[in-house]
Write a structure and sequence with these properties.
With 262 residues, the protein is an alpha+beta fold. Helices cover 17% and strands 33% of the residues. It folds into 2 domains: 125 residues, Mannose-Binding Protein A, Chain A (Roll); 110 residues, Roll (Mannose-Binding Protein A, Chain A), CATH 3.10.100.10. Keywords: Disulfide bond, Signal.
């Protein structure tokens, strides 16, 4: 089986009743914003700034190469408010998405953090998998997440170069099918597993345009001027890490993204 580079979605724990906890999909946004603007961006386009429930989430979050320093996550602190509500300031840090601490009180702070740095640092950031606190008006890249309640769908990049048809066969043998992209969040999820400047096959092809798995999603994210069916033989589609699509000859040998689940 060809080498698999990176599975992007994060699985929740499976309970004895066979209930699947929600999958958290993480989306690294390499645009600098204040914590508040980052929160608004994430709530508009995803679910919220990133929540980390446990060490498994931290270990499975893969920082893009472009993230060389700090990035905002969903932690925030308002100790005066929490003192009024709870009667104490013990672990007053909360997640933007829930207003609560991590299940079981999970924390993963850098040594000597949080320190609030002169009562100015009340927003959470991540660096090399560990948390710190920063001034909320600082401009940083940030991490959003989306939640998939049924825990059934994930994308995997296969690095071996194949034609579109060979990629389809591979995905159907080892996964479910070539990836179908139904919305901007899934488009971001697929783009996030790609290597920088890399173009990869996914499940859209022309007869007229349809999805490999038979889905009817109308979502499209074409490059300006595309699709153009250059030379009359560009009947398959690839995506770049910049999230744009282009039609190309199906015989090109490219990496590809498979999907597993519904």
């Amino acid at each position: 089986m060809d080498a698999l580079i990176f599975t992007f979605l994060l699985y929740g724990l499976k309970a004895a009743s066979s209930f699947h906890a929600a999958i958290y999909e993480y989306h690294a946004i390499d645009t600098q914003k204040t914590w508040y603007d980052a929160q608004q961006h994430c709530r508009t386009h995803y679910t919220d700034l990133a929540t980390f429930r446990n060490m498994e989430d931290i270990e499975r979050f893969q920082r893009p190469a472009s993230f060389t320093g700090n990035a905002w996550i969903g932690l925030f602190d308002d100790p005066a408010s929490w003192k009024r509500v709870m009667g104490n300031e013990s672990n007053s840090w909360r997640w933007s998405s829930t207003g609560t601490t991590s299940p079981g009180g999970y924390q993963n702070w850098l040594s000597s953090e949080p320190d609030h740095h002169g009562a100015t640092n009340y927003c959470g950031l991540i660096r090399d998998g560990l948390w710190g606190d920063g001034g909320c008006t600082s401009q940083l890249p940030f991490v959003c997440f989306t939640e998939s309640p049924d825990g059934s769908r994930h994308f995997t990049l296969v690095s071996a170069g194949k034609t579109w048809s060979a990629a389809q066969t591979h995905c159907r043998q080892y996964f479910t099918d070539l990836a179908t992209i139904r919305n901007e969040a899934e488009n971001a999820a697929v783009a996030s597993v790609l290597v920088a400047s890399q173009w990869t096959w996914f499940g859209l092809y022309r007869r007229p345009w349809r999805w490999s798995d038979g889905s009817t999603s109308p979502f499209r994210r074409w490059l300006p001027g595309q699709p153009n069916n250059g030379n009359g033989n560009q009947h398959c589609v690839w995506e770049s890490d910049a999230r744009y699509w282009n039609d190309m000859p199906c015989s090109n040998l490219q990496p590809f993204v498979c999907a597993k689940g519904e």
